[in-house]
Amino acid sequence: MSDPRHSASIIAIGSEMLGITRVDTNSLKITAALENAGIPLVRKSVVGDSRGDLVAEIRFSLSHSDILVTSGGLGPTEDDLTREGLADALGLEIEVDQSIVDKIAARFAARGWKMPEVNKRQANIFRGQRVLYNERGTAPGFHLVIPGDRRDAQQRVRSPGGEGATEVADALLRVPTAAETHVWVFPGVPHELEWMVAKYFVPWLAEISGGRARRRRVLKIGGLTESAVEERLKPFYEAHPGEPVTILASPAGIEVHLITDAGAEDAESFVTTRENELHEIFGATVFGYDDDTLESVIGRTLAERGETVATAESCTGGLLASRITDIPGSSAYFLGGAVCYTAAAKTDLAGVDAALIRANGEVSEPVAIAMAQGIRQRFGSTYGIGVTGIAGPTGGTPEKPVGTVHIAVASALAVEHRKLQWQGPRTIIKWYSTQQALDMLRRFVPKAR
Amino acid sequence: MSDPRHSASIIAIGSEMLGITRVDTNSLKITAALENAGIPLVRKSVVGDSRGDLVAEIRFSLSHSDILVTSGGLGPTEDDLTREGLADALGLEIEVDQSIVDKIAARFAARGWKMPEVNKRQANIFRGQRVLYNERGTAPGFHLVIPGDRRDAQQRVRSPGGEGATEVADALLRVPTAAETHVWVFPGVPHELEWMVAKYFVPWLAEISGGRARRRRVLKIGGLTESAVEERLKPFYEAHPGEPVTILASPAGIEVHLITDAGAEDAESFVTTRENELHEIFGATVFGYDDDTLESVIGRTLAERGETVATAESCTGGLLASRITDIPGSSAYFLGGAVCYTAAAKTDLAGVDAALIRANGEVSEPVAIAMAQGIRQRFGSTYGIGVTGIAGPTGGTPEKPVGTVHIAVASALAVEHRKLQWQGPRTIIKWYSTQQALDMLRRFVPKAR
After folding, report:
1. Shortest Cα distance, chain A CAs vs residue B18, angstroms
2. Under a CB-based contact definition with an 8 Å cutoff, are residues A403 and A388 in contact?
3. Environment class of residue A82 by beta-carbon count within 10 Å: exposed (0-12), middle (13-18) or buried (19+)?
4. CB–CB of B424/B403 below 8 Å?
5. Which of A71, A325, A381 has the most B C-beta neighbours within 10 Å, making it the best mutation to test the interface with B?
6. Based on the number of CB atoms within 10 Å of its own CB, is A18 exposed (0-12), middle (13-18) or buried (19 or more)?
7. How far is CA A86 from CA A65, B46, B78, in A?
8. Residue B52: enclosing H or E segment and its boundaries?
9. How far apart are CA A7 and CA A42, in angstroms?
């Protein structure tokens, strides 16, 4: 499925990316663009603000791929060495583009400021190479095209030979067969990079891949564990060996990724065929596709049906309401909720009979059901959800250990309840309880009323 | 502050780490261990499951550092090539450790299963090198020690020379001066790696760094923007040039990191002196230290004072209650809350006078105050918080654009209000509104009652 003519590398540049708190996420956007064009990513790396390290990294990357994408190191300070590193590594000459100096100066002048001298560095460009205008910031990007023979020549010229180094080179360098090497140079600020990738890189990839494009269809699965999904997929794997199907587990659900080459003329029917097979395997556990989330799917369904929901939460502490209200337009179907962290609040806000709580305890099936029904009545909503449990780390008993959670979903005529037993820290118990509650509501709605 | 005798590289191994959804986070744990020992990380990279790429990457990394840490690629399948790649790159021999085969077989037998033949690969070890027992999984790790001269020799032996490669090698290789090279090999499963780093790597780092250890003190700042923090720090930077102070901005607040070498005998008083200076600069905006969050600090304060809080939320949709209840033990001081997504709910649950809403609109100072006071009375709590606003993307007007948020905090005797104007998507507006609400409560508590 991938394009054998090309392969790509990514380098993120900046010492701050080598610290204990930051990870490079720009590479994910670049990777997505490459994948859509069917071009394999062979390596990615992070280097600090050292000119020597940068030069070595650029050369090493280009010895493994004919497309290199860099992010970062284009700022105005002396730490920003990407331009210098590329010039050294690729044998390019840097010159000042006065029109860029003028633009930057004008930007400062518009705010009544004088341009600091240091900002002139952002007007440094590579002679004879393409400059990429950056709508979202001061640093322009670049698209550098290095002819195959010239790159090798430059490397030879710029690298004085040394004793003992000869034999290693062959192992380190795997000279690509491509006639040209392409280096795309983007700023590190995520929203600047994102804009430039979409504006310049994606169209170029579409061009070199001849309109071929990978298509990725994601099925979202709710209410199954990752291993259960794997188990169910076994016959599918056996029936279609070598086809790219991937399982990805995240707290928001299990994803089954189906990847195909949209350039093939039968791609559309191929995807449909495979999707139908997956639907047979997973049935109602498929809650959505691609960017869908449980909360967005529920929102769409409720909005379409003109129905509403209200929530009464104990152990999830408001997280269920918060997830529902993350969706734009949720005020059309979410009326509100109560967070009842005490028995009194369950009675006062969700209308749970105090005697019921005394008889069964706050964490029990009857109380979860009464919360769902009570909050529904209080808000006059189509559906009510009640969640009560023990999020821990304390508060458990032998009969009701930490992680015991009761969830109920109610309409005017029907009610459903589930008892769950989670393990893990409090925030995990909260999250998975809301995940179950949303999945219960999703399945409850079509058959309710 | 860093140890000039050593430098480190990290390689994460596995094609799945080159996809569009995963980032390598194991490296952050390794980086933290290195930083505490004062050993600089010079590069990190991700490579796929290709033996050739892996060999080249290992050699390239070792040409830039004398300590290499790898994660991943130790599983039982044929895709797991870390052992083979290391053997090739470093000239080591692989042999089977029968005692490990027996252990893995016993593990399977205990569940009534036969060990699959493929699992024997996890018993492959390097002749004469140290094997690291993995308490949390089947794959052992390794600590490989390669004498400086032997490594160079092996590279020469294993890399047949090639035309044109000579001159490049010198640029690619920067042979470290250290007498020995150390390669630490860990599995990629995060909780296995975490255990092994703590068990084997950290003690070794402490040993080679001679008990020197960096100390990091983090001050958490609330209610200031990143640029405001930078502005206030300018005189501090000028007074103490070259001292390692770092600002990190995240949605949970701005962090000022103060790093020092705890090996120095006056480290303790040094940190105290600098901390006092920072306190003079930032005053009451400092809400905590190190792992503190606004919600944990508020929790500690309320628990100590034996006081309680309740919330009435409109645009934050339950997120405020959810953040408060993320803290273990929050049931001691959080009584509950109401999510009032309609005017009727504001009246019914938070006791806001319907006439007040008609006169001022749902998003207004009087309504925010009435929500805070009303919910306090309803729950009988010491404090009440009211939040009402327009999270967007629709619902804004010229007078009250999207992002307008009113927050009020009330006790029996006092009330405070703030009007905010945010920009960004709904989830961002929700988050920063809760951040402000928590910060307002934090500052309100000491002077209230």
Report:
1. 7
2. no
3. buried
4. yes
5. A325
6. buried
7. 16, 21, 37
8. helix B51-62
9. 7
Q: What chain A residue is nearest to B343 in terms of C-alpha separation?
A: A335
Task: Decide if B45 and A46 are in contact by the 8 Å CB cutoff.
Answer: yes
Which residues of chain A lie closer than 8 angstroms to B336, CB-CB?
338-342, 345, 349
pLDDT tens profile B290-346? 889 999 999 999 999 999 999 999 999 999 999 999 999 999 999 999 999 999 999
Look up residue A321 and give its two tokens: 């309401």
Which pLDDT tens digit goes with each residue over A68-77? 999 999 988 7
Q: Which residues of B touch A426 (CB under 8 A)?
A: 326, 328
Interface contacts (A, B; CB < 8 Å)? 275
Please state the length of chain A: 449
- pTM higher than 0.80, yes or no? no
Measured in angstroms, the CA of B418 and the nearest CA of chain A are apart by: 22
Residues B423/B389, Cβ–Cβ less than 8 Å = no
**pLDDT computed for residue B37 by the predictor:** 87
CATH tag, A297-447: 3.90.950.20
Amino acid at B227: S
- Fold classification of B214-289 (topology level): Alpha-Beta Plaits (3.30.70)
Closest CA relative to residue B81, chosen from B57, B108, B114: B57
**How far is residue B39's CA from residue A275's CA, in Å, rounded to a whole number?**
51
Q: Within 13 Å and on the Cβ side, how many CA atoms surround B227?
A: 0
The residue type at B34 = L
Both tokens assigned to B188: 């990629």
User: Distance between CA B215 and CA B364 in Å, rounded?
Assistant: 47
Domain B294-447 -> CATH class: alpha beta
Contact A221, A256 (CB under 8 A): yes
Domain definitions of chain B by residue range: 8-208, 214-289, 294-447
> Quick one: chain A helix, strand, coil %, rounded to 5?
45, 20, 35
At residue B131, φ and ψ (nearest 5 deg) are -100, 135
To the question of domain B8-208 being in CATH 3.40.980.10, the answer is: yes
Confidence of residue A191 (pLDDT cuts 50, 70, 90): confident
Identify the CA nearest to A57 among candidates A104, A30, A90: A90
d(CA B26, CA B189): 9
